[in-house]
Amino acid sequence: MAGAAALILAGGSAVRFGGDMPKQYLKLAGRSLLRHCVETFIAHPDIDAIRVVIRAEDRALHDQALAGLDILDPVAGGATRQDSSFRGLESLSHLAPDRVLIHDAARPFIDPATINRIIKALDSHAAVLPAVPVIDTLKRATGVDEDLTVADTVDRDGLWRAQTPQGFRYDDIMNAHRICMGAGMGAGLTDDSAVAENAGLKVALVMGNEDNMKVTMPEDFERAERLIAGRSGETRIGTGFDVHQFGPGGHVVLCGVRIASDHGLVGHSDADAGLHALTDAILGAIGDGDIGSHFPPSDPKWRGAASDAFLRHAASLVMARGGRIVNVDVTLICEFPKIGPHRDAMTNRIAEILEIEPERVSVKATTTEKLGFTGRGEGIAAQAVASIRL
After folding, report:
1. At 131, phi and psi to the nearest 5?
2. What CATH number matches the domain at 4-230, 3.40.120.10, 3.40.980.10, 3.90.550.10, 3.40.1110.10?
3. Chain region(s) in the chain for CATH 3.30.1330.50
């Protein structure tokens, strides 16, 4: 494979961050830190393949975080960052990329412009490091804890803060790793540019991005949330409405949950009025037709189909436009079946399909006080509202 591959290192255990889940799988604005990284590389026209290096025990977390994305299967990392990086590089050998960009999954705000600068610099350099200049006055401290004092002021002239992704010509960085491993240099090398330097490669600097922060401590996550909130673009609202009449059958499907019933619902698919209304609401928010234009009832392919496929499709269209679903609200209108006992299951099922937190989902029910076709028990209606941010 000629071209460029992206290798994303996500093998950390979150010891410094705290908590039970590694930070790269925590959600930021509805998506994991890891997914933010991967989606940026997927969208870049010069990146031809993407692989994530993980802890072997985190495979289920990886698969859940990146569900639906077209990337290579992950590989297990090693005991040190250098080990993990080398294992990831080795796993790309069958592709033989010309260039590889190695990125830290804890940096969710990598931007296309920085990727462009790195790839361009690799035309004339074997190794490229994005960095930003140090602008704060630096102090060297002495002592411990509350007894810290300033020992001296450090000259910041010529100092830069290293970032990722770091770019390399593939063969050169592979050889650099082998040289360093052969010389017994391991834990002391904290990034791949250090591997390159110690193997004798000249590392070029390109301008990074101040927003390309690394999430290491809980307060970093709070800063990341503020940063993404400040980037928020246009907010859109869509509404949807759907109706299905009762017919023969022993169950209904509402909001993705099967409920025992004396009646079924009549429809070309599974007649899930709740998910149909919500699909239309999301499509309406992005101005992309309605459920019938994407899944025509005349198409036998969709006969009896589960409606979660329709909702996933609508969510994927939002993602393809660089947007995210902020919250959704579904109201079911019927005399029966009783919705209350199933509300939590419905909320969790919608959240699972849309890959958002359950607290962003509302499901409720009402009646029409015996008025109209729902009041007469002839069918079920549903209305939905979806808020998205582009």
Report:
1. -155, 160
2. 3.90.550.10
3. 235-389
- Tell how strand 166-169 and strand 138-142 pair up: unpaired
Instruction: Give the H/E segment covering residue 159.
Output: none
- pLDDT tens digits for 299-327? 888 888 999 999 999 999 998 887 889 99
Pairing of strands 324-333, 361-366: parallel
Residue 310's nearest CA partner among 240, 235, 360, 234 is 240
pLDDT single digits (tens) 70-108: 999 999 999 888 999 999 999 999 999 999 999 999 999
Can you tell me the distance from the alpha carbon of 280 to that of 276, in angstroms, rounded to the nearest whole number? 6
Helical segments of the chain, H only: 33-43, 59-65, 81-91, 112-121, 170-182, 192-198, 218-230, 273-285, 291-294, 308-320, 343-354, 372-375
Q: Which of 283, 261, 256, 259 is nearest to 272 (CA)?
A: 256
pTM over 0.85: no
Reported as a single tens digit per residue, the pLDDT across 325-372 is 999 999 999 999 999 999 999 999 999 999 889 999 999 999 999 999
In angstroms, the first-to-last Cα distance of the chain is: 34
Q: Is the pLDDT of residue 1 over 70?
A: no
The separation between CA 306 and the C-alpha centre of its own chain, rounded to angstroms, equals 25
Q: Which fold has domain 235-389?
A: 60s Ribosomal Protein L30; Chain: A; (3.30.1330)
**Residues whose CB falls within 8 Å of the CB of residue 309, separated by 6 or more in sequence, listed in order:** none
Amino acid identity for residue 374 in this structure: T
